[in-house]
Amino acid sequence: MVSWDQDLAFEWDRASYQRTLLAMVEASEASVTGWLGRSRTRPLEIKVMTRARYEAAFGSAMAWGAGAHYRAGAIHVNGGARLDGWFGGMLAHEMTHAILDDDGRGGLLPTWLNEGLAERLGLLARGQRDLDSNQRQELEGSLEQRHLVPLPARGVTSRFSYLQGYAAVLFLEQKVGKERLLALVRSTQERGWDRARDAELGWSERKLEEEFSYWVDHLQ
Predict the structure, then answer these.
(1) Is 112 in contact with 165 (CB distance < 8 Å)?
(2) Rounded distance, CA 128 to CA 135, Å?
(3) Is the pTM of this model over 0.90?
(4) Is residue 96 within 8 Å of residue 36, measured between CB atoms?
(5) CB 159 within 8 A of CB 165
(6) In the chain, where do the E strands start and end?
(7) 11-37, pLDDT tens digit by residue?
(8) Torsions phi, psi of 179, nearest 5?
(9) Does the pLDDT at position 65 exceed 80?
């Protein structure tokens, strides 16, 4: 179900806004479902809210720090007056969380993997398929300063942790292939991260971090 605050569009433009929004939601779900190879089986609510209503519902800290968030079967969007490329990428990001959590087990994924996949699909929706030059420089700088790893397993995410996760997902996709990456995701939700990592990659946590660091050190 998709709902939106009527103040997001002029009265004369609301029918067009509704059509465009629904088309973007359908396209986002189709692209995320196709990439992940899995689809929703439970209802999903998408609520596009004015910034004022979002702040009233979730507080100033959330309103200033989040463009949207997924929680318990619903995507809450912080503003939506412009249905543009940014909006489409944000929608794909949160749709990824929703689909990964369709069976209630999204929280079993390490934070870096969960957010990394969402960033991967959100940036794909905006046409970005790899790291850009600024992202490469930031990762290389973090490696030199010795804070590229550990990858965040749990807890509140920072701006850099989203980049860490995105880069780590790209690394695994290139190193072991997309199918094994997705198998790792499924296995983690079935048996837990440590057992899944051992079974699908044959790596310890330290080995994963070493391989990721080597990859970053040899970016071209």
Answers:
(1) yes
(2) 12
(3) yes
(4) yes
(5) no
(6) 2-4, 45-49, 68-71, 74-78
(7) 999 999 999 999 999 999 999 999 999
(8) -65, -40
(9) no
